[in-house]
Design goal:
494 residues; 5-stranded parallel beta sheet; 19 strands; binds flavin-adenine dinucleotide
């Protein structure tokens, strides 16, 4: 049986391990942390449960596909439900919008609350769905860097449906088709789903709302960490071996062929190596190829985040599972994040409260707030300064918009900032999604799922094709396992 080692137990590493174990490989995962999940972990404090990283769950079919492939009943591992409102939006002018996942309801809410013609919303979402079905399904499911992808019969159809505007207009410019600034702001925000700037990123990103506004938004029972737990359990069931607290020091290669890894100064030999580590660090530390590492950095990093995990000793009925408090000047906020690399004093604030879905995620009469603002990836702030300034900005804005001094109700506080994101998960500069999509060619410049320099070395996860976020990371696992299947002759099925 051929041996595979996977470096890192992030969501993409876990999914790749499952797929390869099902294909009959002997798979071992080496993870530097004590637990699996990478960015997708959780912690508890004084009866408050906090998901540490991702909070929005879309496309559960990517998880279901893994259980179907492994021929295991998903219900024994994982359950989730749909949420009727994808997000509740708050504006400083007092307006609010509930983004219902029912398209008709969402369109009429936009008309009633903002005066945005419902037809503008439905036609936008219709175009997003078409774009997703024609283009994204090809580019998200296959390597962009293999000739076979370009010979695929659906590529011609995909390319035909690619309008000039999708590539050459920015998302912000494309979204001026909405009459109201508030509607533009909602649809510009989707660029942040891969850590990009809507005023730079191509209008191609207009397909993102298709995911949550058309396919739906979901909530996993037990919080987002249930995804990690389910995949870890499935991997164990399929015979994957896990080695936690085991940082990989080097990838062994000779004659430009990967031969294994070094852990605890011991050589572990393997036929295939898959790195779920940030591709920049894979080149810099694991391969020692500084030139290639620098090449990765030619692309701008995606934004990072500053998160406050607040245990709140009060309930706020006006809030939902996902809430956004918009800045008054979105363009200025993105200029600060990407151009000036500074904190903006009127940030857009995201608040996720899972106790709205499951009361037991917080003590009685309390709520577990995950409060996040976007910040530059390469912030040069000293963390204590960054945290103090951001906290003051957030509390001031919430006081204005909620009419309440939230600071009086914080009974538990933890923080996550770019430096701790890098320390915890090995994401260079703490960027959430690897590289940004701020250039028109971003999708093509993103690192492939294999390396041309070293045979039998593959890459999965948010820093490589097709990109960051749980759905795309799971797609990268599928692409990598398909590449390995066709590249490596598998021994008899285990
Ligand atoms: P990662 O989670 O980055 O994990 C990589 C793993 O590799 C880590 O466990 C690390 O310890 C390990 N590793 C690295 N180097 C080594 C080494 N040398 N040896 C051994 N192990 C190593 N996505 C969404 O879909 N929805 C959201 O709402 C969302 N919100 C987010 C909010 C925050 C605050 C953050 C941080 C991220 C968010 N994301 C969201 C992004 C999402 O979390 C990531 O895209 C995804 O989890 C990345 O998974 P990954 O497989 O690339 O690996």
């Amino acid at each position: 049986v051929k041996k595979v080692v996977v470096i890192g137990a992030g969501v993409a590493g876990l999914a790749t391990a499952i797929r390869l174990a099902v294909q009959g490989f002997e798979v071992a995962v080496y993870e530097k942390n004590a637990t699996p999940g990478g960015k997708l972990t959780a912690f508890n404090d004084n009866g408050f449960h906090f998901d540490a990283g991702p909070s929005l769950f879309t496309q559960p079919q990517n998880i279901e596909a893994l259980f179907a492939l492994a021929n295991e009943p998903i219900a024994d591992y994982f359950s989730y439900k749909t949420v009727p409102v994808a997000c509740k939006y708050f504006y400083e002018n007092g307006k609010t919008v509930q983004a219902y996942t029912n398209q008709q309801m969402f369109a009429s809410e936009m008309e009633q609350q903002l005066g945005e013609p419902a037809a503008n919303v439905t036609s936008y979402l219709h175009n997003a769905s078409k774009l997703y079905q024609n283009v994204a399904t090809i580019f998200l499911n296959f390597s962009l860097h293999k000739k076979s992808t370009w010979l695929h019969f659906r590529v011609v159809k995909a390319l035909r449906s690619l309008k000039f505007a999708y590539l050459f207009k920015s998302l912000g410019n494309y979204n001026t088709r909405f009459k109201t600034e508030e509607a533009q702001q909602i649809f510009n925000r989707f660029a942040t789903y891969n850590g990009s700037n809507p005023y730079k990123a191509p209008a191609m990103l207009s397909l993102i709302p298709h995911l949550e506004q058309t396919e739906g938004a979901f909530y996993p029972t037990g919080g987002m960490v249930s995804i990690t737990n389910a995949l870890h359990k499935l991997a164990l069931k399929k015979g994957v071996h896990f080695h936690f607290n085991t940082p990989v020091q080097k990838i062994i290669y000779t004659d430009n062929q990967a031969k294994g890894i070094v852990v605890n100064n011991n050589n572990i030999m393997a036929d295939v190596v898959v790195s779920n580590s940030d591709v920049y660090f894979t080149y810099k530390h694991l391969i020692g190829n500084h030139k290639k590492a620098q090449k990765v950095l030619k692309q701008e990093r995606s934004s990072s985040a500053l998160v406050f995990y607040w245990g709140i000793n009060k309930t706020y009925p006006q809030l939902d599972l996902h809430n956004i408090f918009f800045t008054k000047n979105y363009q200025a906020e993105f200029d600060h994040i990407f151009k000036l690399k500074r904190l903006y004093n009127d940030p857009t604030i995201y608040i996720n409260i899972t106790s709205k879905q499951e009361q037991q995620q917080a003590p009685n009469g309390c709520e577990n707030w995950f409060v996040m603002i976007n910040v530059p990836a390469n912030t040069h702030y000293e963390p204590a300064t960054l945290i103090a300034q951001a906290k003051a900005n957030i509390l001031h804005k919430l006081q204005t918009m909620l009419g309440d001094d939230v600071s009086k109700h914080i009974v538990v506080e933890h923080t996550l900032h770019p430096q701790t994101i890098e320390q915890n998960t090995g994401s260079y500069m703490g960027s959430l999604y690897g590289t940004s999509s701020n250039s028109k060619m971003a999708a093509f410049l993103r690192h492939p799922n294999f390396t041309s320099a070293i045979k039998n070395l593959y890459c999965c996860g948010g820093s490589v094709h097709p990109g960051g976020g749980i759905p795309l990371c799971l797609k990268s696992a599928q692409i990598v396992s398909d590449l390995i299947k066709s590249d490596v002759k598998v021994a008899a099925h285990a």
